[in-house]
Amino acid sequence: MTGTAAGNVELYVQNARLPNAHAAGGRSVAVTSRVLEDHRVSRLPEDQLVALLVHELGHHATGATRPMLLVSFLDAPWRLAASLLTGLASILADRPPRRGMLIVVVAALAMAVTRALLQGQWMVGGVLAFVGLAEVLCPLADAAISRRSEFAADRFAADHGLGLELAAALHAMHDGLRVAAGWSRRPLASHPSPEQRIRALLAATAASRGSLRPGRD
Predict the structure, then answer these.
(1) Where does residue 99 rank: exposed (0-12), middle (13-18), buried (19+ CB within 10 A)?
(2) Is 115 found in the same domain as 10?
(3) Which domain, by its residues, includes 120?
(4) pTM
(5) Cα 113 versus chain centre, distance
(6) Buried b (16+ CB within 10 A) or exposed e, 10-43
(7) Domain contains 215
(8) Among 82, 123, 124, which residue's Cα sits nearest to residue 105?
(9) How many structural domains comprise the chain?
(10) Of 52-66, 158-172, 182-196, 198-212, which gets the smallest average pLDDT?
(11) pLDDT of residue 136
Protein backbone atom coordinates (compact mmCIF):
# COMPACT_ATOMS: atom_id res chain seq x y z
CA MET A 1 0.00 0.00 0.00
CA THR A 2 2.87 2.38 0.71
CA GLY A 3 5.45 1.01 -1.69
CA THR A 4 7.68 -0.04 1.20
CA ALA A 5 9.52 -3.31 0.68
CA ALA A 6 9.14 -5.78 3.54
CA GLY A 7 12.91 -6.12 3.81
CA ASN A 8 13.26 -2.39 4.45
CA VAL A 9 11.40 -2.59 7.75
CA GLU A 10 12.38 -4.30 10.99
CA LEU A 11 9.28 -5.25 12.98
CA TYR A 12 9.49 -5.86 16.72
CA VAL A 13 7.03 -6.97 19.36
CA GLN A 14 7.36 -5.41 22.80
CA ASN A 15 5.80 -7.12 25.79
CA ALA A 16 3.36 -4.65 27.32
CA ARG A 17 -0.14 -4.71 28.80
CA LEU A 18 -1.34 -1.61 26.93
CA PRO A 19 -1.87 -1.39 23.16
CA ASN A 20 0.72 0.84 21.54
CA ALA A 21 3.07 1.14 18.57
CA HIS A 22 6.03 3.32 17.73
CA ALA A 23 8.75 3.89 15.15
CA ALA A 24 12.42 4.23 15.97
CA GLY A 25 15.80 4.46 14.30
CA GLY A 26 16.05 4.34 10.55
CA ARG A 27 13.60 1.54 9.75
CA SER A 28 12.27 -0.04 12.95
CA VAL A 29 8.60 -0.38 13.86
CA ALA A 30 7.41 -1.90 17.12
CA VAL A 31 4.00 -2.95 18.36
CA THR A 32 3.15 -4.18 21.81
CA SER A 33 2.02 -7.72 22.53
CA ARG A 34 -1.36 -6.29 23.54
CA VAL A 35 -1.88 -5.07 19.95
CA LEU A 36 -1.33 -8.61 18.65
CA GLU A 37 -3.65 -10.02 21.32
CA ASP A 38 -6.37 -7.50 20.41
CA HIS A 39 -5.97 -8.47 16.77
CA ARG A 40 -6.12 -12.18 17.59
CA VAL A 41 -9.45 -11.83 19.41
CA SER A 42 -10.81 -9.45 16.70
CA ARG A 43 -10.83 -6.46 19.02
CA LEU A 44 -8.52 -4.80 16.50
CA PRO A 45 -9.57 -5.85 12.97
CA GLU A 46 -6.97 -6.38 10.28
CA ASP A 47 -7.73 -3.14 8.43
CA GLN A 48 -7.20 -1.17 11.66
CA LEU A 49 -3.95 -3.02 12.38
CA VAL A 50 -2.76 -2.22 8.86
CA ALA A 51 -3.67 1.45 9.40
CA LEU A 52 -1.69 1.46 12.64
CA LEU A 53 1.37 0.00 10.90
CA VAL A 54 1.07 2.46 8.01
CA HIS A 55 0.95 5.29 10.55
CA GLU A 56 4.26 4.08 11.99
CA LEU A 57 5.72 3.79 8.48
CA GLY A 58 4.58 7.38 8.07
CA HIS A 59 7.04 8.44 10.76
CA HIS A 60 9.86 7.06 8.62
CA ALA A 61 8.42 8.36 5.34
CA THR A 62 8.09 11.90 6.75
CA GLY A 63 11.55 11.75 8.29
CA ALA A 64 10.24 12.28 11.81
CA THR A 65 12.48 9.72 13.50
CA ARG A 66 15.70 11.51 12.53
CA PRO A 67 14.94 14.91 14.10
CA MET A 68 13.58 13.13 17.19
CA LEU A 69 16.95 11.43 17.63
CA LEU A 70 18.64 14.83 17.24
CA VAL A 71 16.28 16.39 19.76
CA SER A 72 17.00 13.59 22.22
CA PHE A 73 20.72 14.20 21.77
CA LEU A 74 20.33 17.94 22.34
CA ASP A 75 18.06 17.27 25.31
CA ALA A 76 20.70 15.19 27.05
CA PRO A 77 22.52 18.08 28.82
CA TRP A 78 19.39 19.62 30.34
CA ARG A 79 18.02 16.20 31.29
CA LEU A 80 21.26 15.41 33.09
CA ALA A 81 21.30 18.78 34.82
CA ALA A 82 17.65 18.44 35.83
CA SER A 83 18.15 14.94 37.22
CA LEU A 84 21.22 16.03 39.16
CA LEU A 85 19.44 19.06 40.63
CA THR A 86 16.28 17.20 41.57
CA GLY A 87 18.32 14.28 42.89
CA LEU A 88 20.40 16.58 45.06
CA ALA A 89 17.28 18.31 46.34
CA SER A 90 15.65 15.00 47.21
CA ILE A 91 18.75 13.86 49.09
CA LEU A 92 18.86 17.08 51.09
CA ALA A 93 15.14 16.86 51.80
CA ASP A 94 15.33 13.10 52.48
CA ARG A 95 12.32 12.38 50.24
CA PRO A 96 11.74 11.16 46.66
CA PRO A 97 11.58 13.84 43.94
CA ARG A 98 8.13 15.23 43.14
CA ARG A 99 6.70 17.89 40.86
CA GLY A 100 6.65 20.32 43.80
CA MET A 101 10.31 19.59 44.46
CA LEU A 102 11.15 20.52 40.87
CA ILE A 103 9.38 23.85 41.31
CA VAL A 104 11.45 24.50 44.44
CA VAL A 105 14.63 23.68 42.52
CA VAL A 106 13.70 26.06 39.69
CA ALA A 107 12.91 28.82 42.20
CA ALA A 108 16.25 28.24 43.94
CA LEU A 109 18.00 28.36 40.57
CA ALA A 110 16.35 31.71 39.78
CA MET A 111 17.52 33.08 43.12
CA ALA A 112 21.05 31.83 42.42
CA VAL A 113 21.09 33.54 39.02
CA THR A 114 19.90 36.81 40.54
CA ARG A 115 22.50 36.67 43.28
CA ALA A 116 25.31 35.86 40.83
CA LEU A 117 24.36 38.80 38.62
CA LEU A 118 24.14 41.17 41.57
CA GLN A 119 27.65 40.11 42.61
CA GLY A 120 28.96 40.71 39.11
CA GLN A 121 29.57 37.04 38.35
CA TRP A 122 28.21 37.25 34.83
CA MET A 123 29.56 33.96 33.55
CA VAL A 124 28.18 31.97 36.49
CA GLY A 125 24.85 33.74 36.18
CA GLY A 126 24.75 33.12 32.44
CA VAL A 127 25.39 29.39 32.83
CA LEU A 128 22.76 29.07 35.52
CA ALA A 129 20.27 31.09 33.45
CA PHE A 130 20.93 28.85 30.44
CA VAL A 131 20.25 25.75 32.54
CA GLY A 132 17.03 27.29 33.81
CA LEU A 133 15.83 28.25 30.33
CA ALA A 134 16.72 24.81 29.00
CA GLU A 135 14.71 23.27 31.82
CA VAL A 136 11.63 25.07 30.47
CA LEU A 137 12.19 25.34 26.72
CA CYS A 138 13.69 21.93 25.88
CA PRO A 139 10.76 19.79 27.05
CA LEU A 140 8.30 22.18 25.38
CA ALA A 141 10.15 21.98 22.07
CA ASP A 142 10.53 18.21 22.38
CA ALA A 143 6.80 17.75 22.98
CA ALA A 144 5.79 20.16 20.19
CA ILE A 145 7.97 18.35 17.62
CA SER A 146 6.60 15.00 18.75
CA ARG A 147 2.97 16.14 18.43
CA ARG A 148 3.63 17.56 14.97
CA SER A 149 5.19 14.27 13.86
CA GLU A 150 2.10 12.37 15.04
CA PHE A 151 -0.18 14.55 12.93
CA ALA A 152 2.15 14.12 9.93
CA ALA A 153 2.14 10.32 10.28
CA ASP A 154 -1.66 10.36 10.63
CA ARG A 155 -1.92 12.37 7.42
CA PHE A 156 0.37 9.85 5.71
CA ALA A 157 -2.07 7.07 6.62
CA ALA A 158 -5.02 9.20 5.48
CA ASP A 159 -3.31 9.93 2.16
CA HIS A 160 -3.08 6.17 1.62
CA GLY A 161 -6.83 5.74 2.16
CA LEU A 162 -6.65 4.56 5.76
CA GLY A 163 -7.89 7.64 7.63
CA LEU A 164 -11.15 6.09 8.83
CA GLU A 165 -9.46 2.83 9.78
CA LEU A 166 -6.78 4.64 11.79
CA ALA A 167 -9.43 6.75 13.51
CA ALA A 168 -11.29 3.57 14.47
CA ALA A 169 -8.06 2.01 15.72
CA LEU A 170 -7.30 5.04 17.88
CA HIS A 171 -10.81 4.94 19.31
CA ALA A 172 -10.49 1.22 20.10
CA MET A 173 -7.01 1.49 21.61
CA HIS A 174 -7.83 4.44 23.85
CA ASP A 175 -11.40 3.53 24.75
CA GLY A 176 -11.68 3.68 28.53
CA LEU A 177 -8.16 5.07 28.90
CA ARG A 178 -8.96 8.74 28.43
CA VAL A 179 -7.40 10.94 31.07
CA ALA A 180 -8.36 14.59 31.15
CA ALA A 181 -5.15 16.56 30.90
CA GLY A 182 -5.05 19.95 32.56
CA TRP A 183 -4.05 23.01 30.61
CA SER A 184 -0.65 23.03 32.33
CA ARG A 185 0.16 19.50 31.10
CA ARG A 186 -0.96 19.87 27.50
CA PRO A 187 2.15 21.74 26.26
CA LEU A 188 4.30 18.89 27.63
CA ALA A 189 2.24 16.09 26.07
CA SER A 190 4.24 14.11 23.52
CA HIS A 191 1.07 13.07 21.66
CA PRO A 192 -2.06 14.97 20.68
CA SER A 193 -5.17 13.67 22.37
CA PRO A 194 -6.96 10.81 20.57
CA GLU A 195 -9.91 13.14 20.02
CA GLN A 196 -7.70 15.71 18.27
CA ARG A 197 -6.14 13.05 16.06
CA ILE A 198 -9.49 11.52 15.16
CA ARG A 199 -10.92 14.93 14.22
CA ALA A 200 -7.88 15.65 12.03
CA LEU A 201 -8.15 12.23 10.37
CA LEU A 202 -11.84 12.68 9.62
CA ALA A 203 -11.18 16.14 8.19
CA ALA A 204 -8.31 14.85 6.04
CA THR A 205 -10.45 11.97 4.79
CA ALA A 206 -13.33 14.30 3.92
CA ALA A 207 -10.97 16.67 2.11
CA SER A 208 -9.40 13.81 0.19
CA ARG A 209 -12.76 12.45 -0.91
CA GLY A 210 -13.94 15.94 -1.84
CA SER A 211 -10.92 16.43 -4.10
CA LEU A 212 -11.69 13.17 -5.93
CA ARG A 213 -15.27 14.15 -6.82
CA PRO A 214 -15.74 15.08 -10.49
CA GLY A 215 -16.35 18.75 -11.09
CA ARG A 216 -19.74 20.04 -12.11
CA ASP A 217 -20.41 21.87 -15.38
Answers:
(1) exposed
(2) no
(3) 75-141
(4) 0.70
(5) 32
(6) eeeeeeeeebebebbeeeebbbbebbeebbeeee
(7) no
(8) 82
(9) 2
(10) 182-196
(11) 67
Residue at which a domain ends, from 122, 141, 160: 141
Residue 16 has pLDDT above 70, yes or no: yes
- What confidence tens digit (pLDDT) does each residue in 58-72 have? 998 887 655 555 555
Residue 166 in domain: yes
